[in-house]
TrEMBL record:
This is Resolvase, N-terminal domain protein. One of its GO terms (biological process) is DNA integration. Keywords: DNA integration, DNA recombination, DNA-binding. It holds the Pfam family Recombinase. CDD domains: Ser_Recombinase (cd00338). Residues 160-281 form the Recombinase domain. GO terms for molecular function: DNA binding; DNA strand exchange activity. The active site is at 13 (o-(5'-phospho-dna)-serine intermediate). Residues 5-153 form the Resolvase/invertase-type recombinase catalytic domain. It comes from the Bacteria. It comes from [Ruminococcus] torques ATCC 27756.
Length: 493
């Protein structure tokens, strides 16, 4: 038997229907080809376009054009189900008869019976008819879903950046200034091959804002890059409406929208190709945050945000400190620095302080504000005490109190006054803190240094101990300058 050549065609259209992922469909095609001594020259993938609504199936058209060419590259086209090949019976008959009669190319389904003879084509037609029935029914469900969503006001209420609703119930219209931002994003991403972070930084530098009037972040750029609204399509079923959880892409429904496009379909498709090739599920990101003994202490020299320690490829022997703002696209400076460079620099800086005794630090006052409050409180009580003297004298003069009663009352108020005056005297000496703490401070730093230097102490402990004397550390890579900010807080008794 002569080896047959074929194309595979994979299409994922809608949710609800029993559906196989593109990979699963492709695998079935490959298994089928192997079993039947066929060689698949190419598999064409049509992803995320719904069955009945999509007029153009670019991959399908490409495949048909090749299959029809004079070179006769393939003997057949294989699909998982006939419903993948065509969207309705008419279309199926047109393409099949065209391919068979004019170009001698068969269309085979790997999961539906292939029967020779007159009944063969009848059964094939019944299968197609059933598929079409399901597609019509499904399309009705999709429309219902859209209508419901429109009624709830979901899409109508807030079109994405680049569009606005001008008239209730009408498709959104383009906001030219915002559309420019969208064009910049796609252009930079596809044509200039700029990274998502860099795009966010660029936009923020230009002063552009998201539809929520916030600076751009990785997330907002990713959302825009994946939103087919911008090429004139509408996407449904991307998220579970109750939880906002994103469904697998094979379940998304994409169809022609009513809004004008801001970018071409071609540009959008190119963006999807790049995005998919670079996307890594969060669990598999190469770098992860890591508890280093300098964690939380390193601050960005430009924006002051904390620098996060990240390991590279799970390499535990070193890590990189990167500005948290930078990784969010909010800081413009590339200040990332390796722990291999920082560790010796920090140790050397502390050592120098210990050797020279020159230490600059911020004196953190223990919480003494209460004594100030106490002062105010006692003064107030003394004022009230003086009023009491006036009142008991008044009571005696008016004959309310006897002389004995007056004397007794006077004695009690006098006692109170003396007690208050004594209390006030006790808190008065709020001695100004003199620089007697410097020796204590250096002693503290020396202890800390010994612990940091030790190999037998774990990074978490080192980190805690370091934080008892150091507020922050700023390393300026451009000047190779390291600044350690110490603080001294007297132990509370
Ligand atoms: Zn920064």
């Amino acid at each position: 038997m002569k080896t047959k050549y074929c194309y595979g065609y994979v299409r994922v259209s809608t949710s609800g229907q029993e559906e196989l992922s593109p990979d699963s469909q492709a695998k079935l095609l490959k298994d089928f080809a192997k079993k039947n001594d066929m060689i698949i020259l190419q598999i064409f993938y049509e992803l995320g376009i719904s069955g009945r609504k999509a007029d153009k199936r670019p991959e399908f058209q490409k495949m048909i054009a090749l299959a029809k060419s004079d070179k006769h590259p393939v003997d057949c086209i294989i699909v998982w189900k006939f419903s993948r090949f065509a969207r309705n019976q008419e279309e199926s008959i047109v393409y099949k008869s065209l391919l068979k009669k004019k170009h001698n190319v068969d269309v085979l389904s790997v999961s539906e019976p292939l029967v020779d003879g007159p009944f063969g084509s009848l059964i094939e037609r019944i299968i197609e008819w059933m598929d079409e029935y399901y597609s019509v029914r499904l399309s009705g469900e999709v429309t219902r879903g859209m209508t419901e969503k429109a009624k709830r006001g979901g899409y109508q209420a807030r079109p994405p950046l680049g569009y606005k609703i001008q008239e209730r119930g009408k498709p959104p219209v383009i906001v030219p200034e915002e559309a420019e931002i969208i064009k910049i994003i796609f252009d930079k991403y596809v044509n200039e091959h700029t990274g998502i972070f860099d795009i966010a930084r660029y936009l923020n530098l230009c002063g552009f804002k998201t539809s929520h009037n916030k600076p751009f972040e990785r997330r907002s750029i990713e959302y825009i890059l994946q939103n087919p609204t911008y090429c004139g399509m509408i996407r449904w079923n991307r998220t579970v409406s109750e939880t906002n959880e994103i469904r697998p892409e094979s379940e998304w429904i994409v169809s022609d929208g009513q809004q004008p496009a801001i970018i071409s379909k071609e540009l959008f498709d190119k963006a999807q190709i790049r995005y998919k090739s670079e996307y890594k599920p969060s669990g598999a990101r190469p770098s992860s945050t890591y508890k280093h003994w300098l964690s939380g202490l390193m601050k960005c020299p430009v924006c002051g945000r904390t620098m996060i320690a990240k390991t590279v490829n799970n390499q535990k022997s070193y890590c990189y400190f990167t500005c948290y703002g930078y990784s969010k696209g909010k800081c413009l400076a590339k200040t990332s620095v390796s722990s291999l460079r920082l560790e010796p620099a920090v140790l050397a800086s502390i050592k120098e302080v210990l050797d020279t005794g020159n230490i600059i630090y911020r004196h953190v006052e223990p919480v003494q504000e209460t004594s100030v409050d106490l002062n105010v409180i006692i003064t107030e009580q003394l004022r009230k005490n003086a009023e009491k003297f006036d009142r008991i004298r008044e009571a005696y003069r008016n004959g309310v109190d006897t002389l004995d009663e007056y004397k007794e009352n006077k004695r009690m108020v006098q006692e109170e006054k003396e007690m208050l005056e004594k209390q006030l005297a006790d808190i008065k000496p709020a001695e100004p803190t003199i620089d007697t703490s410097k020796i204590a401070m250096l002693e503290k730093v020396r202890n800390v240094y010994e612990i940091i230097e030790s190999d037998s102490v774990d990074p978490v402990t080192k980190n805690e101990i370091l934080k008892s004397v150091i507020e922050k550390i700023i390393y300026d890579r451009s000047k190779d300058e390291l600044k350690v900010y110490y603080y001294y807080a007297p132990e509370s008794q």
